Every structure is written in structure tokens, then in C-alpha cells.
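Running log. JK asked me to keep both predictions on one page so they can be read side by side. First protein, sequence followed by its C-alpha cells:
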Amino acid sequence: MRDVAIVAFAQSVHRRRTDELSEVDLLMPVLHEVLGATGLKANEIGFTCSGSADYLAGRAFSFTMALDGVGAHPPISESHVEMDGAWALYEAWVKIQTGEADTALVYSYGKSSPGRVRDVLTRQLDPYYLAPLWPDSVALAALQAQALIDAGDTDEGALAEIGARNRTAAVDNPYAQLTGDVPAGDHLVHPLRTGDCPPIGDGAAAVILAAGDTARALCERPAWIRGIDHRIEAHSLGVRDLTDSPSARLAAERAGAFDRPVDTAELHAPFTSQEVVLRKALGLGDDVRVNPSGGALAANPIMAAGLIRLGEAAARIHRGESDRALAHATSGPCLQQNLVAVLEGESAHA
């Protein structure tokens, strides 16, 4: 296995609406920033991979237009996943492992503002039994929250505290959309209140991966990917225990998260109830700082929020604020798909 690290991370300021910006306009400053952080030029990147969703854009193969932000020349080795950018990072990591590239640019973006996200996300449900009923993303998350309450794992007050803690942490995050003292609000779908749900917004993110000595040359303190894995639950919600996440636990185990304690965890938990599930599945105690960036409750650009969790964890390692961090990304209803990566600083590299 080759040693691969995240050597740079950049993201946009996440906003409720960016009507004046196209996807390319949203991406270009982020791509320029992440390349500038390493001094690399586009023709020095070995592989480029992106993550996005045509459903958000409302047109097929929308990612090909976003490639204008990377540049039409010189020709590049490029791929795309119809998923959160965290899965694009996984593909890029595999590409580097094969030896076909030493560096990779990974980016993702999402503009949620043009449509009604709660309806758009129903298109990822089981097309035969569930999607025809049009249960939206908040309603499904509410089912999970109620299951946790019925099991005695949490209550509405505890969920409100999770929301408050995340958004208080986000006060120091200049890219966050929703920060500070945000009211719990009224019930949106019982038992979830508006404060238990993520903001809707537009945003983009990018990271650069590099292998071995190349990573050390590009970054003073690379965030080494010690392990990364992703797993999936059954598509049908009716056969799953919504109070647990076996796929997240298995991904963490395969990534080596349980080998040694982590000091930081960036969890992709768009709903407060999902943090309860993930903390249990990943065995995170009170000694672990969870979502110091504010997490997805502070900014949730769909298709980029998972990659941002990896980027935020890596950035803390770059700054020397963390030695061993866990980063998590999810996709699908009620934590259906989960990716876990373990990142370490150079001082922890053995």
C-alpha cells in the first residue's frame, strides 16, 4: 500500500442561494485556491475526479459543464461519481494506489437552491415500494429520530443540545452558513424541529491528494490516510434497524478506526438524530471532539458536505490541531451509505 495524504483543502463560503453563479463560477475560486496552496498547476495533476448529482442540476451529464472550471487544456485523466465528493476521493485514492498517478485533484459541488431538495432526494429511494409514496428526506429522518427516542437513546432536549453545540462550534468557521444561537424552532416533522435539520444551501469543495515524498514536498504536515473504507445498508428501510449503523461500524473497523483512539471526528450528520447513531456505531466518547467545524448542521451543500468532512479533518491535522482524526461521509436516506477514513499527522506516522 502506498502512503497517500490530503495535502490541501479549500471550500466556498456556503450560502442559501447563489442564483448569480453557475456551477463553474462556484467551483473556479475553490479550484484556484486548492491548487495555489500546493503550487501545482493543472498539467501537474495526475488524476482528476469529481462528485455531483444531475438531479440537483436538473440536466443529464451536468458534470461535463463543470469541467470548464478545471480547464479544457491540457487534456487530463478524469472521472466522475454520481455521489458525494467523498466517494470521488475514494476513487482517486484507489487510482494512486495502482501507481497510475502520484497526485489527484478531487472536487465536488452542489446547488440545492434551484429546486425543492426534500422532493429531489426522493429519487434515490427504492423505486418500486418507497419512492412512489414520495416520503421526503426530513420525514424519513424523523422516522429514525422517533425510533431512537422510542429505544431510549435520546430525547428532543438532547437533540436540541446537539444542534446548539454544532452551530456554536461553527462560529469560528468562516465558511459556515448557519452559526451561533439558532433556536430549536417548531416541529418540522415530529419529533424533528427546524433546529434539528440542516440548512439548504449551495457550495463547493476540493482537495488534493499526493503520495509519499510528493506529499511531504507539497505540505508541511500532510494528513495521511491510514485507512479508508465504505459500506452500504439494505436499500429497503423496512429491513433496517434505524437506531444503528452496521455499515458505518464496519467501514470504521476496516479503516482501522478502532485500532487506536482518535482525538477528532468530523461526522456527516445532517440531522441531529444521525449524530446519535454515528457516535454509538463509531464508539466515540466525550473525549473526542466531534464536528469542531460545525458539521453538516452548519453547512450542508449536498454532494460536497461529505468531502468537506474529510477536508476539515485534514485541515486540523495540517494546522497541528489534531494528530489522529476520523472523517465520515454518508449518502442516501437514514445513513444508508457510509464512508470512514482515518487521518494522521506526520508525527504519528510510523
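And the second, directly underneath as requested:
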Amino acid sequence: MSTIARLKGFNFFYFALFALFISFLPVYSAGVGVSGTRIGIILGFGSLISIFAQPLWGMVSDKNRTIKKVLLLLLTASMLVGTLLYRADTVWSLVVLVALMNVFYLPTDSLVESLNFQTSQREKVGYGSVRMFGALGYACVSLTAGFALKQWGMSSLSWIFLGMGAIALILAFGLSDVQASSSSRASFVQLKSFFGQSHTWAFFLVVLIVAIPHKMNDTFIGLYMEQLGGDVRSTGMSWFIMTLTETVMFAVSSRLIKSGKEAQWMTVAAGLYALRFLLSSLIGSPYGLVALQVFQGFTFVIFYVGAMQYLYRIVPEQWKSTGQTVLTATFFSVSGIIGSTVGGWVIEHFGGASLYKFMAVLALAGFGMGLALVKRSGAQATGGA
């Protein structure tokens, strides 16, 4: 099996695990009697832990100049913890196991993205052509797991997670390693200088504001679907459509997002997020909510790929993996704390429609901040402030 073929297969099963963890954890938690507010608190607490865990593992990779070895360690631990997670039936056991997943599993995302990006560059293939297989794995498992849970119950999640994790781990052993940083010595002075720039902070602030409603949707779409009269199969269909459109957009993203134009595309995606969530708040039907998930490829993929390419263009060469982990922590963890805790409270007290209206307002704010980032990037490109 070629390097790229093995990497594509790994992406399929690795992101299938993400579908099981991200998409179905809130539904599983509700199924064992955990309230919406408590689900939000549990997920927010896990995100708080991952804020520290993700940069830590990124720095371990950069300092040891290896991604594969760190990834294998974290995947092994994640497979075992995730299997136990979907056997848990008390709030405290969920708290502990979700916390451990945020220590071991969530940090692997940035390492996998670095592995994908650098291997794609080395093998001279498009990053999107590799990453699309991850979206395809997410889509297939989101669809099939929903029907499996309806047929065999929530406890089947444990065995599905174990099986998918074992396949991903086997494929990971055969991957070619890449250095987490260049041959130059990683200097903390460079890293400090990078994070001391106002432009860097402006970029990460845009990412955070847009990521908060994105994470709210990830976390609470299953609960909103139930409020509209849907069930776990409708949630599975939603995730299937989301990741199917992701697959298509990942395949063409490298052709769309050219160097120097990343901020413009991020801003367009933020505007589409606002439209998507506004329509979701007004739809009033589970089938309509399922249909609206076609926006996912035009929002998440365009925004996240644009942000990643933007970051790789401005971050010091020696600290690429650390920069990637900070981006991942911002997009999925910091936003997760805010999104899960605030979103859980809003959906429990005001309902899903109000939550999605609030999400639309946040995305609109991200659109406005994106316009400012575009202006700032243009000024820098022409030698301005």
C-alpha cells in the first residue's frame, strides 16, 4: 500500500472515531439521564482540559521532532478510554472519561492535520484529496451508527468505537513519520515574538468567534433535532449530509483558497455560517434541519482550511506543530468551553430555536471581524501597519 493510500485509509477510520465522539456523546449522555445543562458543563470541562493538553503534546512533538510516535501513544490510550466512555452510566464516570478523552484524543487532531499537510506536500498531492477521506469516514459512520443505535441501543457505541479505533491504530503503525518541525532548532524567542504580534491575536480572535457557534451546533444539534420531533436517525442523517459536503469541499478547497486570499475566504464562510444558523432557527422541522446541513462544506471546510493555510503562512517554521495545536485548541477547545456551557444553558431554558438565533448573531460578529482581518492583511501585504 502506498504512503498516500495508507494515509487516506487512516484518515477514514480516524475521523470515524471523531464522529462517534463528537456527534453521539451528547445523545448518549442524554440517554443515560444527563440534563442539557450538565451535558454542556461536562463538555465544557473537557474542553478546558484540552486547552492545556493540545499545546503540550504539540510542543512534545516539536521538541522531539516526531509526530508518529506521539500519535501512536495517544491513539492507544484514546481507544481504551473511548471504549469505557460508552459503557459509563453515571455523571461522575462521564466527567472523568470525557476529561481523559480531552487529554489523549482531542490533541491527536492537530497532529493528524500536521501529518496530512506535511505528507501531502512531500508527496506532491493536494491536502484536500487526503483530508476528504476523513470527511468520508465521518459521514459513513454518522449515518450507519445512527441506525445501529436504533437497532441495538446506546451500548453498541462502545464496541463500534473499539473496532474503529483498532483499525485506525493498525493503519497508523504503517504511516511514514514526518518531523514536527524543521531541522533548525526550535527557539522559544521566535514563538514568543509570534504570539506577541497584534496581527496574530486578531487572527485567533476571528477563529474563536466563528468557532463558538460551530461548536454549539456540533454539540446540540442532536438535542435540537429531538425538540423538532426527530430522533437519533435524523441526527445521524444530519451528520452524514454535513460530512458528505465536507468530502466534496475538501477535494476542491486547495483550488479555491489561494495563498494570500485566505482571510477573504474565512470571511465569506463566516457570513454563510450566520445565514445557516438563522435559517436553522426558523425551519421548524427535523427534515428541514437535516437539509440545511448542506451548508457544512461551505462553512466549516472553507473557514478551517483557510485558517490553517493562513496560519502556516505566518507561523515560524520551527513551531508549525505548536501553531497547529493552538489553532485546534482555539477552534475546538476554547470555543467548546464557551459553546457547551452557554449553549447548554440557553437550549434548556429558551429552546433550540433561540440558541440558533444566538449562534447566527455570533457568526455575524465573526463576519465583521473577518472584514477587519482582510483589511489588516491587505495593509501588511502592501507594507502598511
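Observation for JK regarding the second prediction: The chain has a mean pLDDT of 84.
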